Amino acid sequence: MITDITNVEIKEFKPFLDEKGCLVPIEFDRFPFIPVRLFWVTDVPKGGVRGNHAHLTTCQIIICVKGIIEVNLYNGVETKVLSIREHESVYIKNFVWDSQKFIEEGSIIIVLCSTPYTPGDYITDMDAFKRIANGSRE
User: Fold this and answer.
1) How many CB atoms lie within 10 A of CB 35?
2) Which residue of 6, 35, 44, 66 pairs with 48 in a disulfide if CB–CB is 3.0 to 4.6 A?
């Protein structure tokens, strides 16, 4: 199955700023799924890349908490690259190969997932992903 990535877009969370600081609310009922797993990624060196895999069933929302993250998406046919900044997010459907490049030192992401962690849900070999993508078009 080729997952459509043409209309993947960046969504912004509206921050509330005042003399006490910045508050960024996230309401899960506005997401395309209710998250069941959350993790965050920190301390990646500038230019470092994380991800580099696809999921069979898991969908994710990647939220940039700090810095700039380049999100690379590939569905087996086409590639899309988005840069997200603080308070921005991108929704990644299942069966999309994705990676995140940390453009600035100190960048942080939080990732919300639609499923619990299951090792068998990961496709970590790009050639295998391409074979599956090509086979699904038949």
Assistant:
1) 16
2) 44
Residue 3 lies in a domain: no
Q: What is the pLDDT of residues 39-95, one digit of tens each?
A: 999 999 999 999 999 999 999 999 999 999 999 999 999 999 999 999 999 999 999
Report the C-alpha dihedral over residues 77, 125, 35, 111, rounded to 10 degrees.
Answer: -90
Q: What is the DSSP letter of 6?
A: T
Q: Which residue bears the tokens 């309401």? A: 27
Domain of 121: which CATH number?
2.60.120.10
What is the SS3 assignment for 41-89? ECCCCCCCEEEEEEECCCCEEEEEEECEEEEEEECCCCEEEEEEECCEE
Q: Identify the domain containing residue 30 by its residue range.
A: 10-136
Q: What CA–CA distances, in Å, run from 76 to 91, 121, 128, 134?
A: 18, 17, 10, 7
Report the number of distinct structural domains present in the chain.
1
Q: Which residues contact 1 (CB under 8 A, 6 or more apart)?
A: 95, 133, 136
Give the closest residue to 73 by CA, choosing from 48, 46, 101: 101
* Structure-token pair, residue 79: 């590639």
